[in-house]
Amino acid sequence: MIASKQLDYAYHGSPVLRDVSLTLEAGTFTAIIGPNGAGKSTLLKLITGSLAIQAGEVQIDGRSLSDYDFKTLAKTMAYVAQSFESAFDFTAYEIVAMGRFPYQTAFRSESQRDRDIIRQMMEATGVWSFRERRLTELSGGERQRLILSSALAQEPRILLLDEPTTALDIKHQMQFYRILERLCREEQMTILTVTHDLNLASRFVERLVVMKDGEIAADGKPEGVLTSETLARVYEVEAQIIPHPQDGKPYVMI
Amino acid sequence: MSRRRSLIVLTGSFIFMLATLMITPFIGSQSLSYQDVWQTLQGVSSPSGLIFFNIRLPRILLALLTGGTLAVAGVIFQALLRNPLATPYTLGVASGSALGALFVIKTGIAFAIPGLTAVQFGAMTGSLLTISFVYLLARRSARVSVHTLILAGVTISYFFSALILILHYIADFTETHQMIRWTIGGLDVIQYSTLLKSMPLLLIAFVVFVGMGRSLNLISTTEDSARSKGVNVERLQKTAFVLASLATGIVVSLSGPIGFIGLIIPHLLRLMMGPDHRFLIPASIFFGGGFLALADTVARTILAPVDLPVGIVTTVIGGPFFLWMLIRQR
Fold it and tell me: What does the alpha-carbon distance between residue B180 and residue B159 come to, in Å, rounded to a whole number?
């Protein structure tokens, strides 16, 4: 479970987040949407702890974020960024093995359990077949699944993602969201993703949180949130909403 | 599979270091035989034995220690700054410590801290101040690109060289004589006691660096990614920066700012074994040491009886190597 309580945040004096309180129940799949500069990534970074909290509180499973040590937090919560950089050309296997860091100590090699988990997560995300290939030899879609795999190797109960599919084509976007959906359903993982793709989010997530100007502008099931009025208010665009022919979820036409 | 290869290269580096230790002391303007050296060990004094044990062996040992330290410091800086061009030399750390050492010689400040001479203390202070500056510059904003940082380091290096020249000009004859070696970088005759005094901190640093292997793998990706996987990023950065700078300061105070070891060795090893720091760090200590001992043997013999400072040899090899890497990096 993730809870943010009255979070305020300002960059160099200009406020980015205002009084954001949000509770995500365990085992739910939620997306944050909203225009550029709405504060989505800032909120995510405050939850991961990569930005220091200025005012308010973040709780993970009922404990304040500041009470966690780095490794315990990494066993609880994993993060997938929009893109992944590395100064050196690691192999796919080495990248996923990095996810085992919180379970390891210096001067010890990987345990059998580490190796089992690495393999299991690589197979679950379909990256096991190119485990010996190097980072520079991988396509964008392969890289994102690899990073997801590395995050899953942390065996987290919570997964946070920042626009993970932005650089992917539609096939790989669907594939990526299907993996997330399965993790949520089968592993009861709590998943929170920031995205700009309203239609993908609409099809896969249970809850949409809409942000604008550092505040939560709408919150609820996609059916309740993705309306012409909300989109006009938040994005300042005129859009029509039709039900998706397959599952009836709202589909945004611009 | 790649793990096996890493282990092979690591073992190979160790054997290379041992081999240079066994072979290079016998090479030189005065050729020595194994029998003479063996006899000396049994208490029979001979000129050959004197040359071996009092001149060549300490020099080779110093080369191993210096080469290993500069190479591993290169690996550490490269991981922390995420750029294979970062080295004690290119970041200005080596010239910072040379300046610190010369400053102490010139001002004649005399004091002793257990295990350290005043000159060593000056060198370590110089390298720490320089790396603090580089670190603050890097932390100040994510937008300072690593290339800017390297450029800043090279500029600092030039600036310090100018200050070093000023110190040379205002120095008297004995001071100048003492100063020369810190400017070029060479492995002069050194006493075992000096070597022994420098060992503890360097060995501790080596062990800590080997233990940091996994964390350094993570930090060489992105800071956010490393933190989200459980690395205490700030602590790691501070510990590694400080320890690598102190170690650099110590060897520079003994051998002067020998260039490009920290560039060539890590790069060659990464080509051979991949970037996994758990193997790269120990391998760079062994390979860097062996490489410098070999380079020093070349420096001693190539223009014999002239004894070139080894810094000239490494720079002649390293300069073009650096340019090649710079161009290849885009």
Answer: 18
**Tokens at residue A19, please?**
């009084």
pLDDT digit string, tens, across residues B1-22: 478 899 999 999 999 999 999 9
Categorize the per-residue pLDDT at B164 as very low, low, confident or very high, splitting at 50, 70 and 90.
Answer: confident
Confidence (pLDDT) at B108: 73
pTM confidence score: 0.90
Distance from CA of B16 to the nearest CA of A (A): 24
Per residue in A116-172, pLDDT (tens digit) is 999 999 999 999 999 999 999 999 889 999 999 999 999 999 999 999 998 888 998
How far apart are the C-alpha atoms of B249 and B100, rounded to whole Å? 9
CA B153 to chain centre: 16
Q: Confirm if B300 and B307 have CB atoms less than 8 A apart.
A: yes
Angle made by CA atoms A231, A232, A233, in degrees to the nearest 5: 90
DSSP state of B53: I
Which of A42, A70, A84, A85 would best serve as a mutation to test chain B binding (most B beta carbons within 10 A)? A70
Q: Which of B150, B209, B215, B228 is most worth mutating to test chain A (most A CB atoms within 10 A of its CB)? A: B228
Residues of chain A neighbouring B235 (CB-CB closer than 8 A)? none
Per-residue pLDDT, B189: 61
Q: How confident is the model at residue B308 (pLDDT cuts 50, 70, 90)?
A: confident
Best CA proximity match to B22, nearest among B311, B310, B303, B294: B294
> Which among A85, A84, A64, A94 is positioned nearest to A76, based on CA atoms?
A64
List, in order of start, the domains of chain A with CATH numbers.
1-61+158-254 (3.40.50.300), 82-156 (no CATH)
Range of the domain at B224: 2-328
Cβ pair A107:B1 closer than 8 A: no
Least CB–CB distance from B220: residue in A88, A99, A150: A88
The pLDDT of B210-220, averaged and rounded, is 95
What is the ipTM for the molecules in this complex? 0.90
Name beta bridge partners: B29. none
- State the Cα–Cα distance between residues B210 and B46, nearest whole angstrom: 41
Query: A98 and B218 in contact by Cβ < 8 A?
Result: yes
Residue A143 · residue A63 · CB < 8 Å: no
Distance, CA of B272 to CA of B12 (rounded, Å): 11
Q: Is B147's pLDDT higher than 80?
A: no
Residues of B in contact with A144 (CB under 8 A): none
What CATH number is attached to the domain comprising B295?
Answer: 1.10.3470.10
Estimate the crossing angle of helix B93-107 against helix B118-140, to 10 degrees: 140
| Omega before residue B305 within 30° of 0, cis | yes
For residue A233, pLDDT over 60 is answered with yes
Structural domains of chain B, count? 1
Q: Which two tokens stand for residue A172?
A: 């790989």
**What distance in Å separates the CA atoms of residue B167 and residue B101, rounded to the nearest whole number?**
11
Contacts of A148 (CB under 8 A, 6+ apart): A80, A125, A164, A176, A179
